[in-house]
């Protein structure tokens, strides 16, 4: 078996599991709907336009990033379940490198997240998001990059923990600060100095900024800086993930 065939086999197994779990497909749509129509429309009724857009539309790119963040990070828990079911042993003794196993898992998690992105793009048309074919392609590629970085974090945590309970505890310490300090729900200009410092060191801030620039044409940082930070962060997390898999 070649390395490419090994990556494909691992990815295909993850994709089939996701498709067969109908409850995951359905529940994955509920959370972003609540944020867009509950939080966005509710709070938006009391907030004036932000950067020229209604609040519900302003936070839409941030909700897309949030959905990818949550799905990608929690995907790491399947490493723990695979270990409990002894499936991981069978994969790790296969005649492919640990880097290929990691790549297959990472692509499987990214596939799950990108399926949800398709749902969100469809929802976007109903709330008058200014989508064009080019915007959809650029947004999809940017979210794929974000997903690769976040899935890698989830896999690193999953590879180094033994219980689902411990994973949930750790992942919440990672996930919520990344989301709330990313600027997904507020503009990052004119913040207090301490809040600016926290948001600027958060790599997800650059993902939200890039998405807001692509979809709405309003971004705080140059788009190349956003993309550069995310590529560097994804590369670092992938390297740490491969090292973690080699130690399992």
First and last CA, distance: 21 Å
Helix/strand order, N-terminal first:
HHHHHHHHHHHH
Hey, roughly how much beta strand do the residues contain?
under 5%
Radius of gyration: 18 Å
> How much helix, percentage-wise, in residues?
over 70%
Residue windows where pLDDT falls under 50 for at least 5 positions? none
Give a short account of the largest sheet: none
Q: Which structural class matches the secondary elements? A: mainly alpha
Number of strands: 0
Kindly describe this structure:
The protein has helices at 3-20, 22-44, 55-58, 60-74, 77-84, 87-92, 98-126, 133-160, 164-180, 193-201, 203-216, 223-247. The model has no long low-confidence stretch (mean pLDDT 88). It is built from twelve helices and no strands. Helix 1 crosses helix 7 (98-126), helix 7 packs across helix 8 and helix 11 (203-216) packs across helix 12.
Provide tags for this entry.
mainly alpha, 248 residues, 79% helix
């Amino acid at each position: 078996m070649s390395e490419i065939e090994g990556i494909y086999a691992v990815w295909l197994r993850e994709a089939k599991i996701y498709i067969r779990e109908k409850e995951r497909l359905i529940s994955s749509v509920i959370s972003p709907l609540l944020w867009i129509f509950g939080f966005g429309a509710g709070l938006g009724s009391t907030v004036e336009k932000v950067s020229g857009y209604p609040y519900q539309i302003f936070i839409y790119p941030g909700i897309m990033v949030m959905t990818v963040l949550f799905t990608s990070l929690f995907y790491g828990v399947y490493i723990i379940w695979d270990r409990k079911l002894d499936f991981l042993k069978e994969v790790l003794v296969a005649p492919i490198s640990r880097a290929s196993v990691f790549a297959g898992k990472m692509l499987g998690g990214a596939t799950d997240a990108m399926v949800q992105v398709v749902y969100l793009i469809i929802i976007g048309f109903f709330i008058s998001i200014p989508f064009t074919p080019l915007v959809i392609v650029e947004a999809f590629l940017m979210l794929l990059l974000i997903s690769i970085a976040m899935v890698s974090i989830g896999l690193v945590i999953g590879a180094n923990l033994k219980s689902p309970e411990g994973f949930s505890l750790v992942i919440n310490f990672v996930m919520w600060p990344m989301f709330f300090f990313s600027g997904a729900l507020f503009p990052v200009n004119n913040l207090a100095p301490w809040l600016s410092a926290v948001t600027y060191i958060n790599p997800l801030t650059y993902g939200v900024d890039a998405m807001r620039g692509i979809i709405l044409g309003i971004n705080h940082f140059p788009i190349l800086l956003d993309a550069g930070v995310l590529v560097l962060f994804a590369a670092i997390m992938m390297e740490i993930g491969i090292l973690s898999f080699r130690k399992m």
